[in-house]
Each structure stands twice: as C-alpha cells, then as structure tokens.
Amino acid sequence: MPTVDLDFGSVGKIPEGWFRLVCDKALYKPNKSKDGFIANLQMRLIDMPEEFEEFENLSIYDWPSFKLSARWKLQEVLGAFTGENWEEDGMQLEVECEEDCGEDSCPHQMVIPILKDATAVGLIYGKEFDGKVRANVKNYLPDDGTVEFGADMTE
Ligand SMILES: [Zn+2]
C-alpha cells in the first residue's frame, strides 16, 4: 500500500500571539530578482512568558522590501523597532559595511545599525514554508509596554 510521509513534529510548535522580538542582525541587501532591496531581519523571541518559555530564543526571519509598493511594511518595522515615526518624505536610513572597512563601494554585506539589538513586539503566527511550519510576524508594534504578551491574536 502506498504511504504518504507526514511530519508532525512541528505541529503546534509555534507560539501564536504577541511576544517580544530582538533584532540580532539586519542586513541591507538586494532582493532575489535584483530589482530592489530588502532588510533581511534576523530576530528571535525573548522574555517569553513562563508558559511559552520553551520558545525563548526561537529564530524568526522577515524580509521587508524597500520597494515603494511594499514600503508600508518597512514603515511598520522601522516604527516598531525604533519607536519613531517614519512618515515623512526625504527621511534617511543609515546603512554601513558590516566589516566597517571604510571603503566607499566595498564588496561586504551592508547592515542597518539602527535595528541591531533593537526590540519590538510582534504578532507571531505559524505558516507553512517548504513543508515546515515556521514562525512569522504578522504585525509589529513598538516595545513601549502597551501590549500584553501572550496568546492573544487581537490585532
Ligand atoms: Zn566594507
């Protein structure tokens, strides 16, 4: 009889709700189709409530685009992690060489310093990607103490 391979290990293994995120690294890099740039965010969950403590340090990734059509998402991310409003025209986001080499146009990875080690609050949910359920962020809010952490999916 034919069989179907099924993994159940990750079912229910994503904590869903509002939790604190720290951004360990934010790369500024070209998107896959090379027609724009993305912020490659390498984040993890911290300060998890006791009932979710097994998910402390769970890695979460996001790739908000700098394209105008998707800039609302970048605006939400920057606003949440910096606590500032990113609403005006002509605003400038600092990017720098990861190696701090001092060359003008260098071959190194570019990073977004303002996001490094910054925290925000994220609405976490599980989404299937390449056959695995991974943690994603539906919404970002500033980490200003106004959001109650836990399994509440209210937006
Ligand atoms: Zn460099």
The description of the largest β-sheet is: 7 strands, antiparallel
Total helices: the number is 1
Q: Please estimate the helix content.
A: under 10%
Bound molecules: zinc ion
Mean pLDDT: 90
Give the SSE string: EEEHEEEE
Distance from first to last alpha carbon:
46 Å
Report Rg.
Answer: 17 Å
Assembly state: single chain
Task: Tell me the number of structural domains.
Answer: 1
As residue ranges, the low-confidence spans are: none
Number of strands: 7
Which range does the strand content fall in?
25-35%
Derived structural class: mainly beta
- The backbone outline, from C-alpha atoms, is globular
Give the helices and strands, then pairings.
Elements: E1 17-30, E2 37-46, E3 59-62, H1 71-82, E4 96-97, E5 110-111, E6 119-129, E7 132-142
Antiparallel strand pairs: 1-2, 1-5, 1-6, 2-3, 4-5, 6-7
This protein binds zinc ion.
Please provide a written account of the structure.
The chain has 155 residues and is mainly beta. It has one domain. It is built from 1 helix and 7 strands, in the order E-E-E-H-E-E-E-E. Strands 1, 2, 3, 4, 5, 6 and 7 form a 7-stranded antiparallel sheet that branches.
